[in-house]
Amino acid sequence: MLTRRSEGMRYGLGAAAAFGAVLGWPFSPLADPAVAPALPAAEQQKAEKEVELRGVEDTMRASDEQRRAIGSEIESIRADRARLSEALIATTANVQDAERGIAAVDDRLMSLNAKADSLSRSSKSFPRFSAWEPIRRQRY
Protein backbone atom coordinates (compact mmCIF):
# COMPACT_ATOMS: atom_id res chain seq x y z
CA MET A 1 0.00 0.00 0.00
CA LEU A 2 0.83 3.56 -0.21
CA THR A 3 2.70 4.94 2.72
CA ARG A 4 2.80 8.54 1.86
CA ARG A 5 0.37 10.92 0.32
CA SER A 6 2.96 12.34 -2.14
CA GLU A 7 3.60 8.88 -3.55
CA GLY A 8 -0.11 8.47 -4.18
CA MET A 9 -0.21 11.74 -6.01
CA ARG A 10 2.78 10.73 -8.06
CA TYR A 11 1.25 7.43 -9.09
CA GLY A 12 -2.13 9.06 -9.78
CA LEU A 13 -0.61 11.70 -11.98
CA GLY A 14 1.48 9.11 -13.79
CA ALA A 15 -1.61 7.07 -14.55
CA ALA A 16 -3.46 10.14 -15.80
CA ALA A 17 -0.50 11.05 -18.01
CA ALA A 18 -0.35 7.55 -19.47
CA PHE A 19 -4.08 7.56 -20.14
CA GLY A 20 -3.84 11.02 -21.78
CA ALA A 21 -0.89 9.91 -23.93
CA VAL A 22 -2.92 6.97 -25.24
CA LEU A 23 -5.72 9.35 -26.26
CA GLY A 24 -3.29 11.90 -27.69
CA TRP A 25 -3.82 14.53 -25.01
CA PRO A 26 -0.76 16.46 -23.93
CA PHE A 27 -0.23 16.29 -20.19
CA SER A 28 2.26 18.14 -18.09
CA PRO A 29 1.44 18.50 -14.40
CA LEU A 30 3.82 21.41 -13.91
CA ALA A 31 3.07 23.21 -17.21
CA ASP A 32 1.84 26.76 -17.21
CA PRO A 33 -1.67 26.87 -18.71
CA ALA A 34 -0.86 30.17 -20.48
CA VAL A 35 1.96 28.53 -22.46
CA ALA A 36 0.85 26.41 -25.40
CA PRO A 37 1.94 22.81 -25.15
CA ALA A 38 4.77 21.70 -27.42
CA LEU A 39 3.61 20.36 -30.75
CA PRO A 40 4.68 16.98 -31.94
CA ALA A 41 7.63 16.99 -34.34
CA ALA A 42 5.48 16.37 -37.44
CA GLU A 43 3.10 19.21 -36.62
CA GLN A 44 5.98 21.52 -35.78
CA GLN A 45 7.65 20.69 -39.07
CA LYS A 46 4.37 21.35 -40.86
CA ALA A 47 4.04 24.74 -39.14
CA GLU A 48 7.62 25.64 -40.08
CA LYS A 49 6.98 24.64 -43.70
CA GLU A 50 3.79 26.74 -43.75
CA VAL A 51 5.72 29.76 -42.48
CA GLU A 52 8.38 29.12 -45.11
CA LEU A 53 5.65 28.76 -47.77
CA ARG A 54 4.09 32.09 -46.72
CA GLY A 55 7.51 33.70 -46.98
CA VAL A 56 8.05 32.30 -50.47
CA GLU A 57 4.55 33.41 -51.53
CA ASP A 58 5.23 36.92 -50.20
CA THR A 59 8.51 36.99 -52.12
CA MET A 60 6.74 35.83 -55.26
CA ARG A 61 4.08 38.55 -54.86
CA ALA A 62 6.76 41.19 -54.40
CA SER A 63 8.64 39.87 -57.44
CA ASP A 64 5.45 39.91 -59.49
CA GLU A 65 4.77 43.52 -58.45
CA GLN A 66 8.33 44.46 -59.38
CA ARG A 67 7.96 42.69 -62.73
CA ARG A 68 4.75 44.60 -63.43
CA ALA A 69 6.38 47.90 -62.44
CA ILE A 70 9.38 47.20 -64.68
CA GLY A 71 7.05 46.19 -67.53
CA SER A 72 5.09 49.45 -67.26
CA GLU A 73 8.37 51.40 -67.15
CA ILE A 74 9.54 49.58 -70.30
CA GLU A 75 6.27 50.47 -72.05
CA SER A 76 6.69 54.09 -70.98
CA ILE A 77 10.24 54.13 -72.35
CA ARG A 78 9.03 52.61 -75.63
CA ALA A 79 6.34 55.29 -75.93
CA ASP A 80 8.93 58.00 -75.20
CA ARG A 81 11.26 56.50 -77.79
CA ALA A 82 8.52 56.48 -80.43
CA ARG A 83 7.59 60.08 -79.61
CA LEU A 84 11.24 61.18 -79.74
CA SER A 85 11.78 59.31 -83.03
CA GLU A 86 8.82 61.13 -84.57
CA ALA A 87 10.17 64.46 -83.29
CA LEU A 88 13.60 63.63 -84.72
CA ILE A 89 12.10 62.80 -88.11
CA ALA A 90 10.09 66.04 -88.12
CA THR A 91 13.16 68.06 -87.11
CA THR A 92 15.23 66.39 -89.83
CA ALA A 93 12.57 67.31 -92.39
CA ASN A 94 12.59 70.93 -91.16
CA VAL A 95 16.39 71.07 -91.39
CA GLN A 96 16.30 69.65 -94.91
CA ASP A 97 13.67 72.24 -95.91
CA ALA A 98 15.84 75.00 -94.45
CA GLU A 99 18.89 73.66 -96.31
CA ARG A 100 16.91 73.63 -99.56
CA GLY A 101 15.80 77.22 -98.90
CA ILE A 102 19.39 78.24 -98.20
CA ALA A 103 20.54 76.56 -101.42
CA ALA A 104 17.79 78.39 -103.38
CA VAL A 105 18.79 81.73 -101.85
CA ASP A 106 22.46 80.98 -102.56
CA ASP A 107 21.63 80.16 -106.20
CA ARG A 108 19.60 83.37 -106.52
CA LEU A 109 22.43 85.39 -104.96
CA MET A 110 24.96 83.86 -107.36
CA SER A 111 22.65 84.67 -110.28
CA LEU A 112 22.25 88.26 -109.10
CA ASN A 113 26.01 88.61 -108.59
CA ALA A 114 26.60 87.32 -112.13
CA LYS A 115 24.12 89.87 -113.49
CA ALA A 116 25.78 92.62 -111.48
CA ASP A 117 29.20 91.65 -112.82
CA SER A 118 27.80 91.57 -116.35
CA LEU A 119 26.25 95.01 -115.96
CA SER A 120 29.45 96.34 -114.45
CA ARG A 121 31.50 95.09 -117.40
CA SER A 122 29.02 96.44 -119.92
CA SER A 123 28.87 99.85 -118.23
CA LYS A 124 32.65 100.19 -118.60
CA SER A 125 32.27 100.10 -122.34
CA PHE A 126 30.03 103.20 -122.35
CA PRO A 127 31.45 106.71 -121.88
CA ARG A 128 31.08 108.04 -118.40
CA PHE A 129 28.60 110.75 -117.91
CA SER A 130 26.64 112.00 -115.04
CA ALA A 131 22.91 112.19 -114.96
CA TRP A 132 23.30 115.77 -113.77
CA GLU A 133 25.49 116.84 -116.68
CA PRO A 134 22.67 118.15 -118.88
CA ILE A 135 21.22 120.11 -116.00
CA ARG A 136 24.55 121.74 -115.21
CA ARG A 137 25.00 122.84 -118.79
CA GLN A 138 21.62 124.49 -118.82
CA ARG A 139 22.47 126.71 -115.89
CA TYR A 140 25.44 128.31 -117.55
Note down, in words, how this protein is organized.
- The mean pLDDT is 78.
- The protein has a domain at 41-123.
- The chain is an all-alpha fold and 140 residues long.
- 79% of the residues lie in helices and 0% in strands.
- The protein has helices at 5-23, 41-125, 133-139.
- The radius of gyration is 54 Å and the shape is rod-shaped.
Total of helices = 3
Q: Supply the helix-strand structural class.
A: mainly alpha
The pLDDT mean sits at 78
Q: How much of the residues is beta strand, in percent?
A: under 5%
Describe the sheet with the most strands.
none
Low-confidence stretches: none
Spatial separation of the terminal alpha carbons: 176 Å
Q: What is the CA-based Rg, rounded?
A: 54 Å
Specify the overall morphology. rod-shaped
Number of strands: 0
Helix content: over 70%
| SSE series | HHH
Q: What is this entry, summarized?
A:
This protein is mainly α. It has 3 helices and no strands.
Keywords:
mainly alpha; 3 helices
How do the helices and strands line up, and which of them pair or pack?
Elements: H1 5-23, H2 41-125, H3 133-139
